[in-house]
Design brief:
This protein is 28% helix and 30% strand. It has four helices and eight strands, in the order ββββαββααββα. The protein has helices spanning 75-96, 120-126, 133-150, 178-181, and strands spanning 13-21, 24-32, 34-35, 63-70, 100-106, 112-119, 157-162, 167-172. The protein has a four-stranded mixed sheet. It has a two-stranded antiparallel ribbon with strand order 1-2. It has a two-stranded antiparallel sheet with strand order 7-8. A hairpin with a 4-residue loop joins strand 7 and strand 8 (167-172). Helix 1 runs antiparallel to helix 2 (120-126). It starts with 12 loop residues before the first strand and ends with a helix.
């Protein structure tokens, strides 16, 4: 048997995406796990990573997000996937223009037992009992509006989210961010 290359989960590339949300034009950077030059579906398991992807030729439709989840073998795990993971995966992929999520299902020992290729648009259908994409996009729009109203041009701010209190907080800071000190 031929040796399979080891996938390094820390390798990724960045894409700059221009999009529009409501009245706001957004230019954002997105960390992309992989791109699939060959095709779609389960073929994405052999996605080009690191040097294998001709990034200058890639369109967002070739971007692939790699995710893992426990095997969906009981109602509690299915509920968590439909309620939380499908929403998180959708918004992350949708905003970055990623059209395919490859989900690796793992057992309790962490072994990969199945791969599923899911179109990003299908995540909306999976989570339809628990969340609405319009509400997610409206929340994001409201956050951008709130930031614009509460920040000054060229100011430095730290934006934090408290999951416990379900609140956003914004603090002005003079500290340099880690990316500003990198050489």
């Amino acid at each position: 048997a031929s040796a399979q290359p080891v996938v390094d989960a820390n390798v990724e590339f960045c894409s700059v995406v221009a999009t529009k949300l409501g009245r706001y034009r957004i230019v954002m950077g997105a960390e992309i796990d992989a791109c699939n030059e060959a095709g779609s579906g389960a073929e994405a398991a052999s996605v080009a990573r690191e040097e294998g992807c001709g990034c200058d030729r890639v369109r967002t439709r070739a971007y692939v997000e790699l995710k893992t989840s426990r095997v969906l073998d009981n109602p509690r795990v299915v509920n968590t996937f439909e309620r939380h993971k499908s929403r998180q995966w959708w918004i992350q992929s949708y905003l970055a223009g990623v059209q395919t999520v490859v989900m690796g299902l793992r057992d309790d020992q962490g072994n990969l037992v199945e791969l599923r290729s899911i179109p990003t648009s299908q995540l909306v259908h999976i989570g339809r009992k628990f969340w609405n994409p319009r509400v997610c996009l409206q929340f994001t729009h409201n956050c951008i509006e709130w930031l614009r109203e509460n920040t000054a041009e060229n100011g430095r701010y730290l934006l934090s989210f408290s999951p416990t209190n379900r609140t956003l907080s914004l603090c002005e800071t003079d500290e340099l961010m880690s990316w500003e000190t990198s050489t």
